[in-house]
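Quick one: structure for this chain?
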Amino acid sequence: MSESIELPNRERVFLPGTMIWEVNREAVLLLAGGRALLMQLAHPKVAAGVAEHSNFKEDPVGRLHRTMSTMWSIVFDDSARARQALERVQNAHQKVRGVIQEAEPVRAGTPYQALDPELLLWVHATLVDSAMVAYDLFVKPLTAEEQGRYYDDSKKLAFVFEIPEKTVPRSLADFEAYMSRMLAGGAIAVGPTARSLAAEILHPRPWSLKLAEPLLSLITAGLLPQGLRDAYGLGWSAREEKLFGLLAVAVRRVLPLIPGPLRTVPNARAAEKEYRLLH
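Got it. Here's what it folds into:
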């Protein structure tokens, strides 16, 4: 196992000025939430765990919110609150185990458990990759140096989640190679369970999201790697590609006009206020 990150009470894992703070404070990154979820579900073992041990079908938006709230807490909150968020996740994961059912891309009867380092790394990687993709597209392009700093910060986050150090790609180049291998290899294969769960993301039930459904579906499909977009059966035309490009440009232009408190995630907003008062 990697060296665990100690979380003493009045300290934070990350401080203002770190690259992960700069990137993850942007609420617009939520637009990549659907992408991250669909990438996670493309791993048959993750899809099985989600389908059999959660209420994802009834509340996919709630699952995304809980996932992001946990990430925001660990990145921005003081260590006492970050530890509580981490313990809630670990306690929930302890119970998630089972076997793959028939008709999936993985042999029926194959065991899975949420604390499998392979699955922890894939879920972590989808969040890191999606954050960088969304920031590049909707905020501003990251330089190579900034990408490297962001990835180095994300490794610390991986160790907090007790992903073994030997499992975590050592550099950004290694991480990019890992993502390419996963997407091109047999481990990532969209099956019927993943497609069924994906329908809940692309066509959310809450009435409050119905009006935005076409827009959110366009964004999710546009952000996905083409191979996964095809595997989920998401059509993609030249017209949709053009609309997606125009949307990205519009978001980048409008974002600087939005007041800081409105474009910043709640945990970062509170942490930055507290930090200013103390310093």
